[in-house]
Amino acid sequence: MGQAVAGSVRLKKTAVPDVLETGIWLARSFRGQGAARAALAAVLSLAAGRGYATVTAETDAGNQAALGTLRSIGFDASAPAGHNRVTASIALAGFRPLSGSPATGPSVR
Hints:
Blueprint: E1 7-13, E2 19-26, H1 35-49, E3 54-60, H2 64-73, E4 76-78, E5 85-91
C-alpha cells in the first residue's frame, strides 16, 4: 500500500474519571485485514498501562463490522430497544493485549 493512510484511532478522556472513549476510522482498502483490531488493542494496552479502568466506544447498530471487531476484542456492546446507536465498553482489569501491542505511546488527550 506504500504511503497510503490506513486510518485513524482516537483515545480521549471523558467526564467520568478512569473512563476513556475510543473511535476508529479505517480506509476501505485496509478493512478485513485485522488493522482495526490491532489499532484497538494498541489503544486498550495504552489505557490499561496508564491505569484507566474502562474504555467505551459508540457505533451504529447496523455497523456489523465495527460491532464484530469490538466484540472480538472483548467489548460488551448493547443498544436500548428502538435505538440506532450501540454503546460498547470494556473493563481493563486483567486486559491482555494482542502480542506486539504497545503499552506506552502518545499522551491521552
